[in-house]
Amino acid sequence: MPMVHLQQQHQHQHGSPLSSTTSASLLPASGLTFSRSWLVHIAHETVKIAEEGCYTNGQGRKVCVAEALRYSMKNSVHYHSSHQFTQEEIRLHAGPPRFEDTEYHVVYGSSLQVATKLQEYLSSNDTDNTDTDTDDSSGTIGILNSASGKHPEKFLRGTLSQEEGICRATLLYPCLMQYYNRPHHFYYVNHKEKYQDNSSSCAIFVPSVPMVRADSQRGDLLEHPLKFSVISIPAPNAFALGDDTAPCVPKAQSIGASKNNEPYQYWTVERALEDRLHRALSILALQGCTDIVLCAFGCGVHGNSPQQAARSFRTLLHGEFAGRFRTVAFAMNSNRPHNFEQFAQVFQQQPEEQEEPQS
User: Where is this region: Disordered (predicted)?
Assistant: First the structure.
């Protein structure tokens, strides 16, 4: 197992924000892996907290989260799969690239564990906060959620995907569910027949989602909630599609396309993966996230190539999105060491050392 030190595009004068997570052994894949019955229990408890708007922390104090949840739900943004992102749009809303230096980190840990470490660093170093509606630096941290296109409720069954861990520990679930029955939105689109094997590239951005419990085995309620923004988008399902060379992923159509008899167009799995990574990074930049926690997107149960995902991320981050993010951390599941190794290898390379993708 490699001892991977966190990578930087340029060296900073200050210390590494995730210096306590520089080796493969320091973080488990996910803390919320105690037992299925316990996971079910705390999942339903989290839903109850969202409904009641408060919880009692370990010190016996009442913590109110209703206003924070209302903010997240009200300011959530849905992006239809037909939305085409451009650098002009990003510059208009987020301004020009801000950062001369970008730190790159490949570490074992859940997305929330890594985001929490990053938030602690940002707070302790008194960094600038670009989120004007919150008073802590965690409002600038964005997490990429490899989302289910059809079933946001799976965390209630005690299962263990990335999204389910996020929904157990945060109030993301009601923010997603507000879109469940909306025509031409995320879940409505993904339940269409043509998306049964592979969900669309519709995406949901939720700002400053309250995190109410620790991402640990017990999932203890936090003394005070943290806040992280979350971009939810499904990964292409390479396992279901089988062939990564043939065009088989439905390309986005405009709203009402079926009524207008628009012909279907298809992408390869590789091209669809690149497109979704571009969409995710575009939304994170557009929404002003300065520090982001990414993942081995689609490289678990969806069967995408971790090397291809890492290369695509690197190409985008060193190219079109250069200077957009101050910190880029990849949170890796320790149950999939191959993903860790592939991402570490790709992000340790200097730009001129990177191999050209095979045609």
Answer: 1-22, 123-146
> Packing angle between helix 111-124 and helix 162-169, nearest 10 degrees?
50
- Selected from 3.40.220.10, 3.90.550.10, 2.40.50.100, 3.40.50.720, the CATH number assigned to the domain covering 7-349 reads 3.40.220.10
CA of 73: how far to CAs of 167, 176, 246, in Å? 14, 8, 39
Alpha-carbon 35 to chain mean position: 25
> 285: which residues sit within 8 A by CB, 6+ positions away?
90, 94, 321, 324, 325
Closest CA to 350 of 9, 2, 4: 9
**Rounded Cα gap, residues 245 and 146, in angstroms:** 22
d(CA 74, CA 81): 21
Mean pLDDT lowest for which of 35-49, 133-147, 153-167, 198-212?
133-147
Distance CA 96, CA 42 (A): 42
CA torsion, ordered 62, 68, 69, 73, to nearest 10 deg: 170
Tell me the C-alpha distance between 97 and 173, whole Å.
32
Q: How far is the C-alpha of 200 from the C-alpha of 338, rounded, in Å?
A: 27
Q: What is the pLDDT of residues 237-263, one digit of tens each?
A: 887 766 556 555 555 655 555 555 556
255: left (phi over 0), alpha (psi -120 to 50) or beta: beta
What predicted TM-score, i.e. pTM, was given to this entire model? 0.84
pLDDT tens for each residue of 48-100: 999 999 999 999 999 999 999 999 999 999 999 999 999 999 999 999 999 99
Per the CB < 8 A criterion, the answer to whether 22 and 4 are in contact is: yes
**Hey, which residues does 145 pair with through a beta bridge?**
232
Q: Quote the Cα angle for 193-240-182, to 5°.
A: 35
Q: How far is it, in rounded angstroms, from Cα 2 to Cα 334? A: 12
